[in-house]
Write a structure and sequence with these properties.
This protein is α+β, with helices and mostly antiparallel strands. It is built from 9 helices and 14 strands. The chain has 3 domains: 163 residues, 2-Layer Sandwich (Beta-Lactamase); 88 residues, Signal transduction histidine kinase, dimerisation/phosphotransfer (DHp) domain (Helix Hairpins), CATH 1.10.287; 163 residues, Heat Shock Protein 90 (2-Layer Sandwich). A 6-stranded antiparallel sheet has the order 3-2-1-6-5-4. Bound molecules: adenosine-5'-triphosphate and magnesium ion (MG).
Length: 485
């Protein structure tokens, strides 16, 4: 999981937990406050109702009115408090339900707490369930006439009224908290994005540097801890670049210095070979031939190293020679044919009908394919076949050089482009080579923006080298891919 995702998850979870805790606490406080308010409202309402209905209660007690008349007086108050009112008289009582006529009833025993409280001169709100299980709030107040208590008015209102209010508050609270959490989450996303932007820049720079862009540096790192890492990266890149440059200069100078003595050794061996004194000395002549062969090998290696040093230092000049790639391949095959035939190997070429003109340095082109064909011939035993196929693509030419040779063990495959690497040296004891060919080929291809892939199913399974070389093309010719050899 990425740092960004982890940072977001942790922050948003913490915010969620904090907001949930705050909501629960605030909700509990609001619920308690609402209940206190509601009970206070009920007691003040009942006190007020007791005052207002006093004349009607007195009239009823004196039998000057009846149940319907009392109902008419009580109904508006019941609607207002969303409950029912009962009126009790001292020693006897009437029980009153809105819209119903009821008979006089004795005060219920045991006395409900709110009625007992009224007798002791207090106002009390009591909560209890009715017979059908519904929860109600009860409160009561004395009804006075001319300073004398004439009865008690009891109020009963379902708890669902308060519960509805509480629910409304909770809904508002939760909606508010959700909106706040979302805003905070957006803020966290924005902050995380800003913080990680410089980290991403750092990662991109490291990747570009690792891919070989040694001149790349982080432009104006921020003034924080990540910025400090950016500065350290720039310093490190600077040092690595100068170390590599020093190394390339050293390699280039060394290879150059080797050339002169090698040339003079070669000149002297040639002079010695022509010397009449040695014309009959077969041992001396054999040694001279061996020295010659070794000097040629060393000269080849020095040339290869010089080229690699130039490639490393980005000093290879990509050529602008106009080359017909089809004719080039055909000519190179002709050149290599004797070497192949000497070993009893068939060399085949399949290419589109040319010409396909491309701009390239002919020496580089020759170096690449001569090395690849040389490998194919060297590592294919007698009776084998080498097949070079050229396929024209949209903006590149795809070359496949397939041989039926000794193949490469899978664990050696990733290393064949390393300098001086020879896969399975024991098997190659008698095959000449220094292990530089493929590293030169891949370095040239890299300079031209081409790619190379070496595939082999294993020992004696043959090898296939695929080169995709992007060329600036000069002409668009008809492609009727068919073998020409
Ligand atoms: P040089 O090319 O410098 O004369 P080399 O041929 O040994 O020496 P590379 O061309 O770099 O070096 O090849 C590296 C190694 O890859 C070889 O030593 C060989 O083990 C293996 N290799 C390359 N091409 C083939 C091939 N066509 N078949 C089998 N093995 C191959
Ligand atoms: Mg080679």
């Amino acid at each position: 999981m990425s740092i960004r995702t982890r940072l977001l998850l942790v922050n948003i979870s913490l915010l969620g937990i904090a907001f949930l805790g705050m909501s629960l606490f605030a909700g509990a406080q609001i619920t308690a406050g609402l209940r206190v308010d509601y009970e206070q409202r009920l007691t003040s309402e009942i006190a007020l109702i007791a005052q207002r209905i006093a004349p009607a209660v007195v009239a009823y007690a004196r039998d000057e009115s009846d149940d319907p008349a009392l109902d008419t007086v009580l109904a508006p108050y019941e609607a207002q408090i969303q409950g029912t009112l009962h009126v009790y008289f001292t020693g006897q009582s009437i029980e009153k339900y809105a819209g119903e006529n009821t008979a006089r009833n004795p005060v219920p025993h045991p006395d409900p707490p709110e009625l007992e409280a009224v007798i002791t001169g207090q106002l009390l709100v009591n909560q209890r369930r009715s017979e059908d299980g519904t929860l109600y709030f009860y409160t009561a107040a004395s009804v006075f006439s001319e300073g004398q208590p004439v009865g008690i008015v009891q109020l009963r209102t379902p708890a669902s009224v308060l519960q509805g209010l509480v629910l409304q508050r909770w809904a508002a609270l939760i909606a508010g908290m959700i909106v706040l959490t979302l805003c905070a989450a957006l803020l966290v996303v924005w902050v995380a994005h800003r913080m990680l932007r410089s980290l991403r820049q750092l990662q991109e720079s490291a990747t570009r540097f690792a891919e070989g862009d040694l001149k790349h540096r982080i432009a104006s790192p921020p003034r924080d801890e990540i910025g400090a890492v950016g500065h350290a990266f720039n310093t490190m890149a600077e040092r690595i670049q100068s170390m590599l440059e020093a190394q390339h200069t050293f390699a280039s100078n060394t290879s150059h210095e080797f050339r002169t003595p090698l040339t003079s050794i070669q000149l002297r061996t040639e002079a010695l070979k022509r010397a009449p004194a040695l014309s009959h000395d077969t041992t001396a002549r054999r040694y001279l031939d061996e020295i010659d062969a070794e000097v040629s090998r060393l000269t080849g290696m020095v040339q290869g190293l010089t080229l690699l040093a130039r490639l490393d230092a980005d000093r290879l000049e990509l050529g602008r020679d106009e080359v017909d790639i089809v004719r080039f391949a055909s000519a190179l095959c002709q050149q290599m044919l004797p070497q192949a035939e000497d070993k009893g190997i068939a060399l085949q070429l399949s290419a589109p009908v040319g010409p396909i003109h491309v701009l390239v340095n002919l020496t580089h082109l020759t170096l690449v394919f001569r090395n690849l064909l040389d490998n194919a011939i060297k590592y294919t035993p007698a009776g084998g076949i080498i097949h070079w196929r050229l396929v024209r693509e949209e903006d590149a030419i795809l070359h496949t050089i397939e041989d039926t040779g000794i193949g490469i063990v899978p664990e050696h495959l990733p290393h064949v482009f390393e300098r001086f690497y020879r896969a399975d040296r024991a098997r190659l004891r008698d095959v000449p080579g220094s292990g530089l060919g493929l590293s030169i080929v891949s370095a040239i291809l890299q300079a031209y923006g081409g790619t190379i892939r070496v595939q082999s199913a294993g020992i004696n399974q043959g090898t296939t080298v695929t080169v995709r070389w992007r060329f600036p093309r000069l002409t668009q010719e008809v492609d009727t891919s068919q073998p020409i050899r």
